[in-house]
Design a protein that fits this description.
The chain has about 190 residues and is α+β, with helices and mostly antiparallel strands. It has seven helices and five strands, in the order H-H-E-E-H-E-H-E-H-E-H-H. The chain has a five-stranded mixed beta sheet. The mean pLDDT is about 95. The protein binds zinc ion. The site of zinc ion has 6 residues, from loops. Zinc ion binds next to loops.
């Protein structure tokens, strides 16, 4: 990553070039404020670079009352951008783990997903990043992450397949190796039965 500080003016100039490249006139009224808006929305859409998602899990609770079953948070919205085309990847993540002695507040799992999603990503790496962070910080008996997402670079252009989605999964520990735990996680992640 470069240390050079990029100015908002430089970003706006770059967006004006893209508008011209698309075939429009960046000086017409409707487009005048667009470069500034794009610059601001980039700060929000790529806010993941300003975070270390591991930090979200720093505060854990050890008093789990003997709870030793899977914890699964379903349907966490995923908004990411594919690193090949910088087009949106949108979908849902299902995240679970089997705790050893520590659990985190469930909203923290969603924040970990957002922290890694709001970057330029490929879905496979995003899935592994989330699982790896939970594995490292909470040291649970196992982690499972399933992401189902639509890639605008596929649905809006190229092979043009609206409605198609990509499913990726990353399982570790007993969720990967123990048949029953794995089935249980996948059943909970799918939200059936
Ligand atoms: Zn792409």
């Amino acid at each position: 990553m470069s240390d050079r500080t990029i100015t908002q003016a430089e970003v706006e100039a770059a967006v004006r070039v893209l508008i011209e490249w698309a075939g429009d006139d960046p000086t017409r009224e409707g487009l005048l404020d667009t470069p500034a808006r794009v610059a601001r929305s980039y700060r929000e859409l790529f806010a993941g670079y300003d975070t270390n998602p591991r930090d979200y899990m720093e505060r854990t609770f050890e008093e789990v009352g003997g709870y030793d079953e899977l914890i699964v948070l379903r349907d966490i919205p995923v908004v990411s951008f594919c690193e090949h085309h910088m087009l949106p990847v949108t979908g849902k993540a299902h995240v679970g783990y089997l705790p050893t002695d520590r659990v985190v507040g469930i909203s923290k799992l969603a924040r970990v997903v957002h922290g890694y999603a709001r970057r330029l990503q490929i879905q496979e790496k995003l899935t592994a990043d989330i699982a790896g962070a939970i594995d490292e910080v909470l040291k649970p008996k196992g982690v499972g992450v399933v992401i189902e997402a639509e890639h605008a670079c596929m649905t809006l252009r190229g092979v043009n397949t609206p409605g198609s989605s990509l499913t990726t999964s990353h399982l570790t520990g007993v969720i990967r190796d123990d048949h029953r735990t794995r089935q249980e996680f996948l059943r909970l992640a799918r939200g059936v039965g």
